[in-house]
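User: I'm curious what two different proteins look like when written out as structure tokens. Can you demonstrate?

Assistant: Sure. I'll show them one after the other, since each token string lines up with its own sequence. Here's the first protein:
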Amino acid sequence: MNRFVACLLALFPFLITCNGRNQQGYTTTGTIEAYTLDIRAASPGKLLYTNIPEGVKIPRDHLLSIVDTTDFHLQKQQIHTKLNGISIQLQSLSNKAEQLQIRLNYLNKQHDRLAKLVASDGVAREKLDELQMERDVTQAQLEDIPVQRSSLLNQQEQLREQLALLDFRIEEAVIRAPASGVVLERYVERGERLQPGHLMATLGLTDTVWVMMYIPEPLLSEITLGDRIAVNTDGQRSSHQGTVEWIAPEAEFTPKTVYTEDTRTSLTYGVRVQIPNPDGALKIGMPVTLRFSH
């Protein structure tokens, strides 16, 4: 019996060492955070409708608000009126061009006829000069038609561009959630008059959250991008699996909220761990424990 106890005492340090190697790892703490997305108004106008529930997770394309577009529709009516006017002018130019061409053909024939008569002294030279002047004026008017037409077409194109921009502004007046997430803050109320860029809400993208952990400089070589990190929360038996997505390129002093008094001045490297959170179990601000083996 005494010999058995003596053997155990002799092996005890070795067993402790082996157990330490098997359980070798690093444990630290952190706080759950999420990327945020600011939702801003794109079109000016009065806020007619809003459905931005703070603290509630909303799906992608959730209708957040509708901005009054009366001014845009009135501008569209004015543009349509101008476009109709331009269409009438273009048709009038086409008719005028046809008439001028017919007149010019007639004047050319008359010019040739009078020129022969003048050559035989059958008609005074003044008659030919008067006809020549009228022909030149008609020719100039006909040549000016394409210039006028081009100007009207340019105006028409500009008005159509303005119309497309107004249609775009009207579409932007209906504001939907660009991604699923939790509404962290709402900054507007129904009836407010908004301007482009007005901050309406902040959305927390909680489908994937992240936590910042800090590792001592000696362990930096033990962790790489893509490493799996076990993430545990109080009261939950099962752990979440995170992935290292970023490692700080420079060292910093350990944040006071992470380490004990004797290690606060240690140099550490920040490591950001991304954690899938499809069920929303991990809440922003929740403390967690992180562990990785090395």
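Here's a second, unrelated protein for contrast:
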Amino acid sequence: MRPVILRILLVLASIFTLACFFVYRNNDIAANAFSRIPVKYFGEPWPQRQQCPFSASPLRFRDRLTAHNYTRGIIRPRFHDDSRVALAHIEEPLLAPFQAQPNFLTSKYANIGADCSKATIAYVDVEPDPEHDETRKILFGAATTVERLEGALSRLAYFIGGTGASLIALVPPADNLEEKQAYFRSRGLDVVLLPSELDFTLRYFSLVRALNSHISNNMHEIEWLILMDDDTFFPSLSLVSERLSTLSSSEPYWIGALSEASWQVRTFGRIGFGGAGVILSRNLLETLDKRYDECSGEGLGVLDMPGDQRLGKCINKILPKLKLTIWSELHQWDMRPEPHGLFEAGRPIWSFHHFQGGQWGNADMIGMSSVAIVAGDKSILRRWVFDSRGSGQRQERDFWVLTIFLPLPFDLRW
């Protein structure tokens, strides 16, 4: 083999080995980082640490190939009852002046940020999670398939698992439903898989009968039902249950959100759209079940009518005076391609839909919600202004806005 070719192969092998090391090291750092995060810290402000818990830069491997200007700041929560404001302020200076940092091949780069003693620690005020948590009184219902449930398992387990809430899923018949149900439960999702030979649209409406039957036989404590699509995500079930605790489930309640697309509302009516989550009180569910046969056939419309539309028409038929209660925090997300600006608008959002790309937007729901681990559910999508300079209408202003949406780099951390 020619010496030139041999040298080229040796260089390529070295680069590949180095890349594998950094990929492994990044995964190791990430695992160690999350293992250090406490669960729902609600005590006094954390003591200042002189050393960071991470031994390398938080930048991704591909970002280390070029030089950067680098600074860091540490943000920690203070919990107390405080009304949420759309745009809060961090009074303390947060970011030190940027410093030029070379690429990762320079030896000095390996120790970036290892010393926390010079980093500024800023405290932000956030509301604690609700003291009373009645999520165990909530039962979810979805018409789906086992395959789609497998794809949504991590998201469903995130907001249902560990809350005491449960999920009833109507799926096509299969021989291995008990095995799949056991698997989902072992992964943290309290789910019951019920076989149904109905087409999807009718299967959605048949959740009325399935949910009421399951409650009557097994779950007498259930007060609220949430019908949803299998790609619906609730970042905080405790905030939903906190609002529901102010209502009586012994009264008929139909709660949801309209579509953001006006043509959808004109086409399907003023109904609760399924992607946002449709909340029914137990009283209303029992009423719907008693008159189920009046709404399940062609007498209400074509059989392939969307399930949430059939549900709305049924409610309008049997309880014409009952109107949809709209919660502004629930969203159908009939917007494409990307809902730019809505995540950064500072508004509380309790349900997401159409976030998996394709013709819709693409967002990491679990990553977005992970800040709640250390800062509480009410910190999600909060906004803070920091490092403001200047004042008055005619003076120049220089500031940053931090939106708690995407996962933060480890060094800009809670």
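A detail about the second structure: Residues 14-51, 406-414 have pLDDT under 50 and may be disordered.
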